[in-house]
Design a protein that fits this description.
It contains 3 helices and 23 strands. The mean pLDDT is about 90. The strands form 4 sheets. Strands 5, 6, 7, 9, 10, 13, 15 and 16 form an 8-stranded mixed β-sheet that branches. Strands 1, 2, 18, 21 and 23 form a 5-stranded antiparallel β-sheet that branches. The protein has a 5-stranded antiparallel β-sheet with strand order 3-17-22-19-20, with no helix packed on it. It folds into 2 domains: about 130 residues, Jelly Rolls (Sandwich); about 140 residues, Jelly Rolls.
Length: about 350
């Protein structure tokens, strides 16, 4: 460019462009962009595959001191605050006596605590499940009255602090089920959510959840509408491209109304393409088998929260986002959108 020249560029929201300015004119390769033809909508129902087990979040609990009266069911972090209020202890937070110091100077056991996590099963899973929780070595765990044993060799789930406990087949029943934790409560004890993982679906209606069957096929809409409200791994959608497209034909895939961390596009034997910013498009070549795989990579927000904050989307999130109150709190699950959205594929031709 010469002094005084202007360059006009358009940017989609969040889009980036890399520009190189040189002192002398240089020959440029022919542009790789194409003019898109009439688009074809890729629609549901769609075959899919999960890359990790589905999950049911158990974050509401009733509690009591052993052999004492039960306190009503509430969100687990608010139950933690209620326990500490009863004991005259500070709430967990930045101003609390830090755990590393408390472990050295306050080892008092305030009592024997019981936590009851209840959930509904509409259809009993056919396979065994895993219960994931923090510090299971500090609790005795029973499911419907049957004790579970913790084996460190069973490893962890997603985060090293979430240990896995095997839940054998036949332990769950149709209707209401209970997971009961019993353990000593000290200043450094934390009440936390539990996570049930396995091959099952989860129905969600406001604050009510239930285990059900995974769908055979799914739509391109929100995962919550496809019995995957708390799922936060990868999900691969498998399409057969319409016969109006010929093998070897250049195509453009557009993801409209996409919500996720990123999408991975795979067609034929070429390396997959990552799409993570607007305009959410990928150019590809129609493979001989016309098979197209699009993988939605979700964020972990709908698993680990905050799950009850209003509004759902804010400028920042911190520990206080998990224990909001009043108009900033909802007993219902308030999830972020997670979906591929509308997919359109267009034939391309040189301009």
């Amino acid at each position: 460019m010469r002094s005084g020249d202007t360059l006009n560029l358009t940017f989609a929201p969040g889009q980036e462009r890399v520009l190189a300015f040189t002192g002398n004119p240089q020959p440029l390769p022919a542009p790789l962009c194409y003019a898109a033809g009439h688009p074809v909508l890729l629609d549901a129902p769609i075959d899919y595959a999960l890359d990790e087990p589905n999950v049911l979040v158990l974050d509401t609990v009733s509690w009591r001191w052993e052999n004492g009266p039960w306190h009503g069911c509430q969100e687990v972090l608010k139950a933690d605050q209620q326990v500490r209020d009863e004991l005259g202890l500070e709430h967990r937070g930045g101003e609390m006596l830090q755990p590393w110091f408390a472990k050295l100077h306050d080892t008092h056991i305030y009592g024997r605590l019981q936590l009851s996590y209840r959930f509904t099963v509409e259809e009993i899973p056919q396979d065994s499940l895993w219960l994931c929780c923090e510090r299971p070595e500090h609790w005795t765990v029973a499911v419907n009255g049957v004790p579970l044993s913790y084996n460190p060799a069973d490893g962890f789930w997603i985060d090293i602090c979430l240990k896995r406990l095997h839940l054998p087949k036949g332990l769950l029943k149709a209707g209401e089920n209970e997971i009961l934790l019993t353990g000593d409560f000290a200043r450094t004890t934390n009440l936390e959510a539990l996570y049930l993982t396995g091959s099952f679906g989860v129905s969600l209606d406001g604050e009510r959840t239930a285990l059900c069957r995974l769908p055979e096929q799914i739509s391109l809409g929100n995962l919550a509408d496809n019995r995957l409200p708390f799922y936060s791994g990868r999900i691969t959608y498998r399409f057969t491209l319409p016969e109006c497209f010929s093998p070897g034909q250049p195509l453009r895939l557009s993801l409209e109304d996409f919500h996720g961390a990123l999408a991975l596009i795979q067609a034929g034997g070429v390396p997959e393409q990552a799409v993570w910013t607007a305009p959410y498009e990928a150019d590809l070549i129609c493979p001989p088998d016309r098979m197209l795989a699009v993988t939605l990579v979700a964020t972990r927000r709908n698993t680990f929260g905050p799950l009850h904050q209003l509004p759902v989307l804010t400028q920042s999130y911190g520990p206080g986002s998990f224990i909001t109150e009043g108009k900033a709190w909802s007993d219902c699950y308030e999830l972020v959108d997670c979906r591929l959205g509308t997919l359109r594929i267009s034939p391309l031709a040189h301009p």
